[in-house]
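Dear colleagues,

I hope this message finds you well. In preparation for our joint manuscript, I am sending the GSKIP domain-containing protein (Coregonus suidteri) sequence together with its predicted structure, so that both groups work from identical material. I would be grateful if you could confirm receipt.
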Amino acid sequence: MLKEKVTVKTTTEESMEIDYQPEDSHVSLFDEDCIDHVKDMRLEAEAVVNDVLFAVAEMYVSSNLDSALAVAYINVETREGNRYCLELNEAGLRVVGYAFDQVDESLSTQYYETVYSLLDTLSPGYREAFGNALLQRLERLQQNGQ
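The corresponding structure tokens are as follows:
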């Protein structure tokens, strides 16, 4: 096992030496990063759902579609009754199907940076519910401030 001494300088100009094993850390970090990345995307999808669930009819992370290394799928039904399958990846969110758990590879829809902007485009009911929730929160803040 090869060990290297690495000198690390801190902000106070002190230095310390640590043992570093490049071969071992590279292999184990890569494997852990891959696993954590898959977990993180599903966790990110769950967070997306929790953020806007109040403003849609139904929304959940798909358990029928396999999440790949950096992709998770979310099913959403708008307040108007329209169903969509959304893809979440590092590029953002986009519609990939017009039914739950449906991925249409021929669709080339726009990516949105946030679930808010995507739903604002798809659903006037979402826009209204989000605006009402924001207004109620501002009113509560104003009441608590007086």
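For the figure legend, we might mention the following. Strands lie at 4-9, 15-20, 58-61, 72-77, 83-89, 92-97. The two ends are 66 Å apart (CA to CA).

With kind regards,
E.M.
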